[in-house]
Design goal:
Order of helices and strands: HHH
Number of helices: 3
Number of strands: 0
Distance between the termini: 96 Å
Radius of gyration: 28 Å
Strand content: under 5%
Shape: rod-shaped
Structural class: mainly alpha
Helix content: over 70%
Largest sheet: none
Low-confidence stretches: none
Mean pLDDT: 85
């Protein structure tokens, strides 16, 4: 059980890193700066890979088969505290991810709107060029 607690606490440290990474990058996203998006996702993937390994290690510990009487009250309290903290971190990370998705969606909508404006401008310029060359032909005739 003690090894499982160590793994859980290590997992929480990785979740904290994930949370901090999100926090710092959200400031960039809020300012419309998406230059580091690919590096951000790569860093997140690395942390998630470590968390996945921690989960696999926890599964190997097979803590479900340990009876509550075998665990000291102090260890049980630490374990419950670590679990509660993990749940809190996961909830906050999910909230961050929703905010990040909102920033990305907003930027995407802005880009789509700008592309539509560029298309409309190109169409107008194309129509003007077409109209201009038609008038020139009429004048020459």
């Amino acid at each position: 059980m003690e090894r499982a607690l160590e793994i859980l606490e290590e997992k929480n440290k990785h979740l904290e890193k994930f949370y901090s990474l999100n926090e710092s990058e959200m400031l960039n996203f809020a300012n419309g700066n998406f230059d580091g998006l690919e590096d951000f996702y790569d860093a997140r993937e690395g942390i998630l890979e470590m968390i996945k390994r921690m989960d696999h290690m926890l599964e190997k510990e097979n803590i479900e088969n340990i009876s509550p009487q075998e665990v000291s009250p102090v260890l049980k309290k630490r374990f419950l505290k670590a679990l509660s903290y993990k749940n809190d971190l996961v909830t906050r990370i999910l909230s961050q991810d929703l905010q990040i998705l909102s920033y990305i969606e907003s930027a995407k909508s802005k880009i789509i709107s700008e592309l539509a404006q560029v298309r409309a401008a190109k169409k107008a310029v194309g129509a003007y060029k077409s109209f201009s060359s038609k008038n020139r032909l009429d004048e020459e005739a």
